[in-house]
Amino acid sequence: MNKIQLHQQLMTHLQSLLNNAKAAAKRAHETATSEENVAENKYDTLALEAAYLAQGQSQRVTQCQADIDACISLPLNKSTVGSLGALVVLVNELDEAKYLLICPVAGGVKLQWEQHTVLVITPESPIGAALLNQQTDDQVSITINNKKQHFEILQII
């Protein structure tokens, strides 16, 4: 399995989020500073609301850039334990395989590799925390929606 391809897909996704956030921030800033939105009375709050929106969008841009920065140096070498950059293949009691990429950000993003869907998880998630420092053939259990699920680590890449 080529983790470089997964990393490129992840970076493309994060860059797309950043580009969208920048465009939204620009539109919000233009709305906030438009002469058409100058308040005509004390109840006219469109410009103020647009300024709040512009501030929030700017913070979103900052967070998107921080996510990219956190993923640029994601370790892509073969892992032997569950750690950042590890691609973990789990199998449940029904022999269904799950492919998980442990990443510092972007939890929930789905990537495609060959015929597999790879779910990005963070160490803060229940499954991410359970996988940290685990090895191939280890058993992990997590509770999701009040239901205990058991997995075996089939492979760590």
What does this protein structure show overall?
- By secondary structure, the chain is of the alpha+beta class.
- Helices cover 41% and strands 24% of the residues.
- It has 3 helices and 6 strands, in the order ααββββαββ.
- The protein has a 6-stranded mixed beta sheet with strand order 3-4-2-1-6-5.
- α1 runs antiparallel to α2.
- The longest helix has 31 residues.
- It is elongated and about 70 Å long.
- The relative contact order is 0.16.
Number of contiguous helices? 3
Main β-sheet, spatial strand arrangement: 3-4-2-1-6-5
Low-pLDDT windows of residues? none
Series of secondary-structure elements, N-terminal to C-terminal: HHEEEEHEE
Oligomer: single chain
% residues in beta strands: 15-25%
Question: Kindly state the mean pLDDT as a whole number?
Answer: 92
Shape: elongated
From the helix content, strand content and strand pairing, which structural class follows? alpha+beta
Q: Give the terminus-to-terminus CA distance.
A: 8 Å
Largest sheet: 6 strands, mixed
Percent of residues in helical segments? 40-55%
How many beta-strand elements? 6
Radius of gyration: 21 Å
